[in-house]
Amino acid sequence: MNQDLLYQIGITLVKGIGNITAKQVIETLGDVSLLFKEKAFLLERIPGISRKIISEIHHPDVLKRAEKEVLFIEKNKIIPLFIKNENYPERLKECVDSPVLLYFRGNADLNTKKIISIVGTRNASNYGKEVTENLLHDISASYPETLIVSGLAYGIDICSHKAALKNKLPTVGVLAHGLDRIYPPVHRNIAVEMLENGGLLTDFMSETNPDRQNFVKRNRIVAGISDCTIVIESAEKGGALITANIADSYNKDVFAVPGKISDPYSAGCNTLIKYKKAALITCAKDIFREMCWNEEKETKKPAVQRTIFVELTPDEQTVVDILSKKESLQLNTLCIELNMPVSKLAPVLFELEMKGIVRCMPGGIYRLV
C-alpha cells in the first residue's frame, strides 16, 4: 500500500483541519506522515493545531478510512494529485483555498498552456447552446490544445463538454462527489467519452454524495484551475455567478455573453458586465484579444537581444533569466521561484515593463516581450 498517499488522504479527513491549515502543517512538517507520528507536544507548536484537533488526528477511523480510499484508488486507476506533486494543477495551487488533494481520472494535462472554464444556467436556451458551440468551434480552429473545463451539469455545462468533444478539444468535468458515481446519471456516457480525451476531477473521496453544499466547493476548482471563466447565460442568482465571483476573487479573467434585458437567464451575465465584474464577449476572437493569445503567435527574439542594449540591475537580470527559461509565470509563482516577496518583486517588474522588456498579461501573468 502507498504509505505516502495514506497519510495525504488522512490529513484531509481530520476534523478541524481545512485546506488552509493543512497547507500550513505541510509547510511546517515537510512530511505529512509526521502529523500522525509526532508526539502531541510537538504538534501543538504548529499554527492552527489545538489539543482537540490532535485528538482527532489520533482517531482510529481516520487512517482506517484513508486505507479504504487508497484501495479504491488503486483498483480504479485513479490519479491522486497531492499539492506538493509536480502534476498538481499549478493555476489552482496559487489559490489560497486550493484543495490539498485531488482525485483524477483521464488523460488531460491539467497544466497545459491554455485552459478555459465555461459555466452557465442549467436551463440553457437555443441561443446559449448555439453560442457555446460556436465558441468552441472557433477556439478549436485557432488553439486546438485548449483544455475546456466545466461541471458536467445540465444546460451550458454539458453543452460545453459535448461541443469540446465534437471539436476534438480535451475537456474535464469537475465533480461535486466522488469518482465512484456520476451525477446526473444521464451524463454517464459523455463522462466515459471524456475519459478518452480529458477526464473527471474532484476533491471528494468515494462514497461522497452530490449534496448541495458540495457544488459550491466544486465551483472554486472550476474557477481556480483555468486562465479565465466564461459565463454563458445565467440567472441573477446561481452556481454560474458564484463561480464567476470566485474567479474574480482569484484575480482571474471573467467573460460574459450578453443577452436580452428581458431574458431572465441572461440577467446574470448582463449584471456581471454592468458592474464590470466581467468583460463582454460575443465571439472567440474577443477572448483571444483579451487574453493576449494572438500576441503569443509572434516570433520571439532570443532574450539576449532584448537586453543587450539595456542596463539591468541584478534583480532585473534575475527576473529576465527565469522568464527566458519559462514562457510565462504568474506573479505568485515568480515570487516562489525567485524567493522574493511581492513587495520587492513588484517594483522590479514595473521597471522591466517601463524598459519594454516584460509585459503583464491578464491574471497577473508576466512574460518577456
Structural summary, described in words:
There is one protein chain. The chain has 369 residues and is α/β, with parallel strands linked by helices. Helices cover 46% and strands 14% of the residues. The chain has helices at 3-13, 19-29, 34-37, 40-43, 51-57, 60-75, 90-93, 126-142, 156-166, 188-194, 212-224, 239-249, 267-274, 284-290, 303-307, 314-325, 331-338, 342-354, and strands at 79-82, 101-106, 115-120, 147-150, 171-174, 198-202, 228-232, 253-256, 279-280, 329-330, 358-361, 365-368. Strands 1-2-6-5-4-3-7-8-9 form a nine-stranded mixed β-sheet, with helices on both faces. Strands 10-12-11 form a three-stranded antiparallel β-sheet. Strand 11 (358-361) and strand 12 form a beta hairpin. Helix 1 crosses helix 6. The protein is globular and about 60 Å long. It starts with a helix and ends with a strand. The model is unreliable at 299-308 (pLDDT under 50).
Key features of this structure:
globular, 46% helix, three-stranded antiparallel sheet, nine-stranded mixed sheet, 14% strand, alpha/beta, 12 strands, 369 residues
Write a compact overview of the structure shown.
By secondary structure, the chain is an alpha/beta fold.
